[in-house]
Amino acid sequence: MSTQAPEQPVDDLYKIRHSVAHVLAQAVQRLWPTVKITLGPPIDYGAYYDFLFDQPISEEDFPKIEKEMRKIINQGQTFRRDDLTAEEAKKYWKERKQPFKVELIEDLEKSQHITEVTHYANIGLKGEETFVDLCRGGHVESTKEIPADAFKIMSLAGAYWRGDEKREQLTRIYVAAFRSKKELEEYQTMMEEARKRDHRKLGKELDLFIFSDDVGPGLPLWTPRGTIIADAIETLAKETEAEGGYLRVRTPHVAKGQLYEKTGHLAHYRETMFPPMKLGDDEGEYFLKPMNCPHHHQIFASGLRSYRELPMRLAEYGHCYRSEGSGALFGLMRVRSLTMNDAHIYCTEEQFEEEFNAVLRMYLKYFELFDIKKYVMRLSLHDPKELGKKYVDAPALWLKTEDMVRSAMKKSGIDYVEVPDEAAFYGPKIDVEVWSAIGREFTLATNQVDFDVPGKLGLKYIDKDGSEKVPICIHRAPLSTHERLIGFLIEQFAGLFPLWLAPVQVALIPVAGAHEAYAKDLERRMKEQGIRTQVMDPADSLGKRVREGEKWKIPYLLVIGDKEAESKSVAVRNVSTKQQVTVPFEEFVAKTAEDIRERRLRASIG
Ligand SMILES: [Zn+2]
Ligand SMILES: [Zn+2]
Q: Which residue, 251, 403, 431, 592, is most buried by CB atoms nearer than 10 A?
């Protein structure tokens, strides 16, 4: 926004979306001349703009705003940059009764000591100014470059000025904007499908988790059905980690403040931690743990370690607590209590690359199991300007560790992108973004390198030559948290989970009372094989029970009548493929048990 600030890297789509925000604000100002304008950044599917209206507006106003926007686009307005002193700019906005713009400039003067700002004016065909905004640039040349059939006003939302609930409540207008009509339509289809697959909606319909007002927002409670999924994932993690040479630990949910002072969490992470608890005057303060690492570090430090014990890999499905603001909470995706597929690998510098790559291989294995086909690994680096503030002040170690991770990534052959200024405070990290089956993006897992905290906590090992050294620590959570992963999987599978994850794997539907005994017998024999079954209430009609089984998204529905009882077979309805086949019961059990054991994505019968 100030002329000193570096221009953001912009691509064509960014320019379109940023320009759309100007067009939206201009259209709104034409329709409601007294509206107060604030800010309007581009976002990942378009842009939004926050306004203060005299009268509330509604969705019914969308068509007329869109019509006005189309007019502006078709006029082919250009953008003109004007450099002003901060004083001139403040005078300009005061005269036009736009107090939010004045406040923005005053803030820039205070926080960044700027003395000049830039305005961008839209210029109409006759050279007239049609709209002016405080902005640092990155627009199309002419509004004609904005595809007039590839934008759409999506929604309204309330937003406080500067996110401060004591300030004015503004109206935020969201616009989707793309390069082509086709892309816009694809986006709308995806959003429609996402609404159907919304993990909050399906979580309720399939009775997987609940929130309770008395327990508190952001604190999910897993129901018996949801717990089956979480347990199946935990079993997968424990098996995989046992194969990978991990050792399991268990640690408490709280710790004394002095621990987090030593680790630096209180200095760098305090606003994300729950406020302290006091037990007694001589006890000091306790905190709910925001991460498991400090506890695991204590276990590593509890003995005199030799290089022979390294790498030491300590794993725990650890419960952590973070004090997310109530406005930021979102279903299972943004919560205050999380159960993390956590582990800390303590290793030497020579072991680092192999350990790091073993973690990456673990990611790839999991992606296959969960049918994740598209993903991106982002290597998040530090920003030298933030050393001593956001990041521990150790410039040489940052560069060295970042190089180690870069080199490990290159050797792994996995594509990655580098992103500045997104590292953890103690070291670089890999964030893994994945796309669900309907093309929506999620940040799922992280893999972080810590060159700082082990030293601060006095972690060490005795090396071959007898000298004391500080181990490197790799933090990894490939299965993310139960909350985030299961939220993702609900959307990924639209609630119809693969057999190994499904809360009920097989529903039994006896056609009539006479077949109930056979159904019970089959149920008992499936239970012996560890198959989760349910006999559908015989009081209901056959059709209703089939629909019920489909509603609960049970992978297999077995219909059992005279023919089946006689021939020791079952009529199998595969809810995913909608195919129905009759197979001998023994074959059904054997194949189903194998699908579950092998964690196959698709059930093999029907
Ligand atoms: Zn702009
Ligand atoms: Zn950690």
A: 592
Per the structure, the count of domains in the chain is 3
Assess whether pLDDT exceeds 50 at residue 2.
Answer: no
C-alpha of residue 72 to centroid of ligand 1, in Å = 15
Residues 230 and 136 in one domain: no
Same-domain status, 388 and 325: yes
Cα of 586 vs centre of ligand 2, distance in Å, is: 47
**pLDDT tens sequence across 452-465:** 889 888 999 999 99
In contact, 235 and 369? CB cutoff 8 Å: no
Q: What angle do CA 99, 103, 104 make, to 5 degrees?
A: 120
pLDDT at 10: 67
* Same-domain pairing of 252 and 382: yes
Centroid of ligand 2 to alpha carbon of 297 (angstroms) = 9
Residue 293 CA to ligand 2 center (angstroms) comes to: 4
| Cα 364 to ligand 2 centre (Å) | 21
Is 516 part of any domain? yes
Structural domain includes residue 461: yes
CATH number assigned to the domain comprising residue 41: 3.30.980.10
pLDDT tens track for 195-228: 999 999 999 999 999 999 999 999 999 999 999 9
Q: Within this chain, do residues 277 and 382 fall inside the same structural domain, yes or no?
A: yes
400-439: b or e for each residue (b if 16 or more CB lie within 10 Å)? ebbebbeebbeebebebeeeeebbbbbbbbbbbebebebe
**315-331: average pLDDT:** 93
**Contacts within 8 Å (CB) and 24+ apart, 363-372:** 363/432, 363/445, 363/447, 363/478, 364/414, 365/240, 366/236, 366/240, 366/478, 366/479, 367/434, 369/236, 369/599, 369/601, 370/489, 370/492, 371/437, 371/492, 371/493, 371/601, 372/434, 372/435, 372/492
Q: Would residue 2 count as lying in a domain?
A: no
Domain identity same for 414 and 474: yes
* Cα of 176 from ligand 2 centre, angstroms: 37
CATH number of the domain within which 591 lies: 3.40.50.800
pLDDT classification of 397: cutoffs 50, 70, 90: confident
Ligand 1: distance of its center to the CA of 98 in Å? 17
What pTM was computed for the model? 0.84
Co-location of 484 and 549 in the same domain: no
